[in-house]
Design brief:
Blueprint (H helix, E strand, L loop, with lengths): L10 H4 L3 E7 L4 H7 L2 H9 L9 E5 L5 E7 L3 H6 L5 H4 L6 E6 L3 H13 L18 E2 L7 H19 L7 H15 L2 E6 L2 H4 L3 H7 L9 E7 L5 E6 L1 E5 L8 H4 L7 H15 L5 E11 L11 E3 L5 E3 L7 H14 L4 E6 L3 H7 L4 E5 L2 H13 L4 E4 L16 E2 L8 H10 L8 E5 L3 E2 L9 E2 L4 H11 L5
Parallel strand pairs: 1-3, 1-4, 4-5, 8-10, 8-13, 9-10, 12-16, 13-17, 14-15
Antiparallel strand pairs: 2-3, 6-7, 7-10, 11-12, 14-17, 18-19
Length: 473
Amino acid sequence: MDQSPLTFATADEAAGPVRPLTVLTAAAFEDWAGTAPARHAAWAAANGFTGQAGRLLVLPDADGGVEAAVFGLGGAEDRARKRFMLAGARAGLPVGVWRLEGALAGEDLDEAALGFLLAGYRFDRYAAGAKPAAMARLVAPEGVDAATLEAVAAGEALTRRLIDTPANDMGPAELEHAARDLADAFGARVEVTHADDLQAANLPLIHAVGRAATAARAPRLIDLQWGEAGPSVTLVGKGVCFDTGGLNLKPGSSMGLMKKDMGGAAAVLGLARMLMATGAKLRLRVLIPAVENAVSGAAFRPGDILRARNGKTIEINNTDAEGRLVLADALALGAEGTPDLMVSMATLTGAARVAVGPDLAPFYCDDDARAEAIAAAGRAVRDPVWRMPFHAPYKPLIEPGIADLDNAPKGGFAGSITAALFLRRFAAGAGAYVHFDIYGWQPSDAPARPKGGAGQGARALFAALPHLAGTPS
């Protein structure tokens, strides 16, 4: 994919013709019509344009060519219901360089500029003869941090591209290659523990979940580290590159989207890219247990009792609850480094989707101040998140008696909460722990978010990190 649509227009491009793109609310339309050139006001009237939400109108010059454009934001309710509305204008604008005009400022201006960039994302790797399409470009608006927005857009694009790639081309080895490419680009270090070496390295759950796959898709633990000073932050991402469900085989209807079960790994790599590209002052570690939950004679079984890295025993009551197993070993490893902050991100439970749907990213955090910082950042950068509780009375549900923990409590209640409680048992030692149970998929086209892989929670974390990794409140 051509990355140029994910950046603002260069100085050379901006030195040529730059047309104005005026953004209007419905309430501001009359004032605009009263001050605009008469031909523009007449053209708007002839086309029934009154600042309606999502409506783009290209305005002619005196000779019938393109002179400018105007885009409607509608009313306050329209803006509350639809994020990144301006992104919808990009596909309809004539090719060329544009500048934003209008009353946007602060967070609204950042949202508009970022949405315009994200609207340039395309996943056309498998489309025969696909070529990068020429697109309208935007001059970085005055008042935005252009470099940061470009870094955020590139991180989001990385996440989307990894999720969108089908499992035959995005197995554990390819996920490792993506991490190595990212490390090479920013001077990070990568160590990878492969296959049978996982047992010698005391990563038994990662080995157990991934051992049924073919040798070409063998399990591994990817460990990326970057930065020498500042708070220590460890990101742990679920990298189940395809999930058949194991011996508790998923039905076909549930298996169709399982290429996205490495969405947590894609999210933390995208977030890591944002942090490294902007030179964040921290010591960053990214841990990705990369596996395929396959079916063979070597597959782990319902009823097995496995021992985790930290010594806890786990009764396997469903091999389709494998994500929390591989995360458990990675979290235990990460906690041994006593980071100031440890974050796990995973496409973990269907229960989270039932609770909040595909658009909200539920997260768990014990610390009220940190939780509010994440929620406030999510609101500011239009990355909606929702705090969920580590509800202590549910702890007995993950304690089967025959072993220390149960990987799939019976009853079907509070599935996302019990999974979070399970993971927290392996995060002891971190200064603070946050868990995101994301969906990682956009089910239908929306402004700046085409149907397909989607980053969730990463932009909120990126904005909130300065408030998260310091001294606990």
